[in-house]
Amino acid sequence: MEPDNSDSNEASPKPVKCSNEASPKPLKSSNEGSPEPGNNDSSEASPEQSNMDSNEVSPRLGNMDSNEASPVSYSYQDRNPSPPPSDEGTTVPDSIGSTLYSKPWLFGTLTKLIEFVERRPVNREEEEEETSMELDEDLEDDLCKVWDMSMNEDVALFLKEFGVPDLFVGVINKSRSDRLTEICVGILGNMCCHEETREMITENEVLWRMLLLLLSEPDPPTLLETSRLLLTCLSHRDVANIWLNRIKTQTAVKDHICFIMRSSTNADLLLKVGQLVDKLFDMDSKLMIKWVAGPSRHSSDDEQTPSESNPPVMLFIPSWLEAAKQLRVEGADGLHVYLRTLHLLTIVDGAYLAIVKTPDGGESIWDFLYDLLMHDLCQPGDPPLMAQRQKTMLCSVLGVLSMMFIGRTGQEFLQIHKNLQLIDRTMHVLHHVELHEDSVLEQCKKKRTDSDSQSLLKEDHTIQIFKDICHEFLADMLNALKKDNIKACFQEGYLNERKCCKAIKYIVPNYQSQASGFIKAMSEVDGNLSETLQKLLPLSSDGP
Question: Where are the annotated coiled coils located (predicted)?
């Protein structure tokens, strides 16, 4: 069953602001570095000009000395005073485009940036010992203002004309400050939100190669901004295929992404990388198969032991699982993105096999999804509305579980006697969906809009896919039940007469053969109930 793609065509990422508006020092940890700057969700930020203190002299113009002008005094009059002279048609010569941002201030900031990067240690010993350099606090504050300003298209175009992308190539190559690299990539990411500057950055071969190499950096904020930039470019049709083809030819990109998913504990970074992978897989199924089917580097029987010069090959599925587990522990948004990616694998020939061909045959994936369904999603005490809210995640989880169960080839963990509780949980989820739909219909009837409510339910594409997945999964599980399994289900409370009748109603007429198989097995346990269930089946078309 094809997963819902409603989330895959989101609006293109928007520019983000730097988090250092008051120029605080970023808090670093040995593992993850500073938190993500600004609004980490690229779809929520807006490309408005940054809100700066109106008393600042830079980077905005227009702060006049108090002696340059004096307020006009008006004598008391019987009528309202005349409005002040209109400024329409006047321009400030040193402003950038139609903004009030100052060209001289921006020139000065970029000059200070160049001077900082060109600064050299006093002696060789200092140069050898110094592996990083703290960014000057004032310069960091000014660069964050440039980051905010770059959300404006006029400013982005001015930065392009000034040659900032080429300048940043040199800055990043020479930089010994993670924070500086992060800010530079963040500014480039904002520039990629505007067509003209995006195309120019895309055409700069030295720059795009450097950006892909930055995925190997150990600094999480830099990785976050790099991933955001790539996602932005992939979300715009004018350059999307260009970046896709580059990523396909750079095999190291897959290893870098897998390493991030496998080792990072930064929820914001994992979310952004997950969105990047989901976008790539949605755009190109061949890339998906290539990434998930096996290692990106050719291996041989006499392959050397992994070392610094010969790093271990990163497998996609185990890396995906580590990231998904981390997001679940953090309770952060973004797990639905990873689940949708996994569900996407089940509908592409060649990609699904990667799940069952993992070293444990897919058992770790099955256990993770099983536990997620049993303990996190649509719990017995939850209101029916929860099934509606969690429909995307439920659709992905049950879709993968269903596919793995149908395709089982002798794996012990997939046998029905190990998963009897799934029957009860699947029916519970379907019941919650029914209750929510009944609630919608009832509310609409009170408003006398019954026809609108029926139309609304039919238009909920995700719910329809979700119900189809549940019905198919339930039908296959019931058909797999044997006499002893049915007895165990009755003993544990997973089945009773009411639930059996409900289950048959769920799966017919689309899965009548599975229903007949279940009824046949039931006849060996309870003949009367078997006859009751048989009456629920629709009459055969070739009957008398």
Answer: none
